[in-house]
Amino acid sequence: YVTAFGEDAAWMGMFNYAKLGFITQPTDYFWGPFNYRSEKEIGNQHKMNVYQCVGSREVYRVLLEYIAKFCTTMSQSNIPFFGFFWGSSLSHDYLNKPKLGDEHYANFFRKLKQNGILSNTVLIFISDHGIRWGGIRATFQGRMEERLPFLFMALPSEYRENHALAYSNLRRNTRRLITPFDLHETIKDLLDPYALTPTLIHCREQIRQDNNARGYSLFELIPNTRTCSSASIASHWCTCQESTKIDSNSSVALRAVTFAIDYINQKLNGYAECATLALAEIHNVHEHSTKEHIVDGKPYHLDYTVVFETVPGNGVFEATIRKYVKVDPITSYFNVTGTISRINLYGTQSLCMTEFHLKLYCYCI
């Protein structure tokens, strides 16, 4: 396969933001240097994190044109290809801006189909998360969107007809709980998609169920009994629970928030350039239920999602704290599930911090 990789806003790309990037060119075609240079030389409309334009053209449209040219060139030359492309400039900074790209994305996909590229190419269209800050993020809808990125797949019609079970499972899995681990297994299958016979699919399904596998290929039928726990989704990112808002001044709320702040400060321990954070306000607290029965006399746990603000810096954080309870004698302790999210912008507050994962928490002093 001829390979290609490209993303706009390359300075904050998945391999570049607070990272070292590539020492050698990672793929046959690599768009990154062009993007970096063009944004530096003729980039404009940089109001938040990304350049909206290079010269008179919107950055995301330049990337779409590059992808279309790459696919067309490889297809016309009968060269097998794999491309991984990521666009941030259209959607990263502004909640409502993605709608401005609807027509251009539709034309892009339409052109791929009209040129016959999709007759022998698998197309996967994904996002990684919803917008992570601003007013929308403080709402229930915003919380759900952050945790539920979209995933679309298009398979060639000939493959759908000749591998009916694989295609049927793919469609049925649109109503199942899936994760990026499943997408990873699916992409591995695409290395040899013609090997997916019904016998192989059924055999692998049984093996994965017996081993409680973390990832399924989307060409296999994912069990409809799958839970966040069995799919290795931390409670903080799970959207399958029922929740009840509780008093922010309750004892358990105060203990959970205090534990979360102590957890952050422990992460920052040893970084003298970062302030020690203290509680300013508890915004809200929700108790979650997964409808799993609590057996009398057995240890159990309860999850609490807490949204709180700290000083200095007025950072707003969201954490899911798990309370473990032992019944005889009654004792309890807390733990953080997943990661603690920063849901407002930290901007220049963490310029002194070079550790990527700690930029969310550090207030430079």
Automatic annotation (TrEMBL):
- Annotated SUPFAM superfamilies: Alkaline phosphatase-like
According to its UniProt record, what is one Pfam family this protein matches?
Answer: DUF229
Organism domain of life:
Eukaryota
Q: Which GO terms describe its cellular component?
A: extracellular space
Q: Residue span of the signal peptide, if any?
A: none
PANTHER family given in the database record: FI08016P-RELATED
This protein is called what?
Answer: Sulfatase N-terminal domain-containing protein
